[in-house]
Specification:
Family: Belongs to the TRAFAC class TrmE-Era-EngA-EngB-Septin-like GTPase superfamily. EngA (Der) GTPase family.
Subunit structure: Associates with the 50S ribosomal subunit.
CATH architecture: 3-Layer(aba) Sandwich
Oligomer: single chain
Protein name: GTPase Der
Bound molecules: guanosine-5'-diphosphate, magnesium ion
Number of domains: 1
Function: GTPase that plays an essential role in the late steps of ribosome biogenesis.
Largest sheet: 6 strands, mixed
Distance between the termini: 12 Å
Number of helices: 5
Helix content: 25-40%
CATH class: Alpha Beta
CATH superfamily: P-loop containing nucleotide triphosphate hydrolases
Order of helices and strands: EHEEHEHEHEH
Amino acid sequence: MRPQVIIIGRPNVGKSTLFNRLVGKRLALVDDQPGVTRDRRVGQASIANMEFDVIDTAGWEDEDAASLPGRMRKQTEASLEGADAVLFVIDSRAGVTPLDEEIARYLRTNDVPVVMVANKAEGKEGDSGILETYALGFGEPAPISAEHGEGIAELFEGLWPVI
Ligand code: GDP
Ligand code: MG
């Protein structure tokens, strides 16, 4: 079976854009509105000779903060079932937010290897946000621009040792 790689992160960090970039077809809906992708979407991805299935998720919407931990756990537990690796995406322009920290805490309770991805890293605007991701505890981030197709080599370097 192809390795299963799941994209996780809070709304609007660029998960669906990354999914589309990796899959090469516009299978996931991308929009300026947070939380547009309602379902999990699975696509076939390859970087160089590395082949894997990639899963786009939208389980972390923050419309009702009070019920967030419970819903997070439920939807993410289901998502992580059978996953070989997580691409944990943050928005390097926004920096690390409390919801990112919440997701990080959850991911630390799980055994699935996490590759830290600092998206929106084109230009210099994301530089401090990229550095902030070290505090989340998942090691060196892969700085990428899903929109511009930059940093895919760094993503490969993060992913190939774990899948
Ligand atoms: P999701 O909610 O995490 O799935 O995020 P989306 O993929 O829907 O993207 C949210 C917004 O961020 C959209 O307006 C995208 O165009 C934008 N976006 C995604 N990737 C990048 C990137 O690499 N750079 C910049 N500047 N914007 C991006
Ligand atoms: Mg999405």
